[in-house]
Amino acid sequence: MPTVTRDGVTIDYAVDGDPGEPTVLLLEGLGYGRWMWRWLAEALADDYEVLRPDNRGTGDSDVPDGPYTVAEMAADAAAVLDDRGVEAAHVCGASMGGMIAQELALSDDRVASLTLLCTSPGGDDAAPTPPEVQEHIFSAPEDADARERIRYLMEPAVSDGFYDREPELVDRIVDWRLTGDATPTGREAQAAAVAAFDASDRIGDLSVPALVLHGTADRVLPVENAELLAERLPHAEVDLFDGGPHLFFVEERERVNDRIRAFLGGVA
């Protein structure tokens, strides 16, 4: 995989699709590796160059001391665009990745469009993660083994029946998370970045087309955040996925991928 180094931190990234086509940059959520975009990358690869960096602290990228900031991770993403010689990119981010995407759009005029999934602009008006959910996603039982720990921490991000509906997929996700997710140190440093993020009074300056997607049953970042983004982004369209959890783009991947492809086709 290619890498780029910025301020002594090396960021590893994957490239899918055709480098001669328009570029889509995919940015993942807190603690998650680039595996979470495997379905969307496959859906876009025929018509786009798709870049999937591992955030600092994650996967094959370096794990510098924290805390991190969203601005630092946006600068890392910009370094990936620099490394590929990208002049314009459609940027798609989920959860923390959506925060990085907002920050990148505010600081880099190469962002041609934004697709924001299950994310928030931060600030006092944002709907926070409920305390009981925050405790669940950061503290597994002490006697859990590595696989049980991942399944436990992920429970609030999926719908109640997901583990039973797609047991083979869940096992594969656990495998991917064991090898590709953030280290405990990286996850803690990323969490500090999310806690400090606030673009709520700045995103009104963005002129790029934006698509906001959110599950109505998101327990991690409540759906009210999608409504807040819609209010403050000047050119946003919003689609809500009824009953969708935080990882609705995994559980409803075909429908989500089709919606993103349609949006990108309209703004390319």
From TrEMBL:
<dbReference type="Pfam" id="PF00561">
    <property type="entry name" value="Abhydrolase_1"/>
</dbReference>
<dbReference type="InterPro" id="IPR000073">
    <property type="entry name" value="AB_hydrolase_1"/>
</dbReference>
<feature type="domain" description="AB hydrolase-1">
    <location>
        <begin position="22"/>
        <end position="251"/>
    </location>
</feature>
<dbReference type="InterPro" id="IPR029058">
    <property type="entry name" value="AB_hydrolase_fold"/>
</dbReference>
<keyword id="KW-0378">Hydrolase</keyword>
<dbReference type="InterPro" id="IPR050471">
    <property type="entry name" value="AB_hydrolase"/>
</dbReference>
<dbReference type="GO" id="GO:0016787">
    <property type="term" value="F:hydrolase activity"/>
</dbReference>
<protein>
    <submittedName>
        <fullName>Alpha/beta fold hydrolase</fullName>
    </submittedName>
</protein>
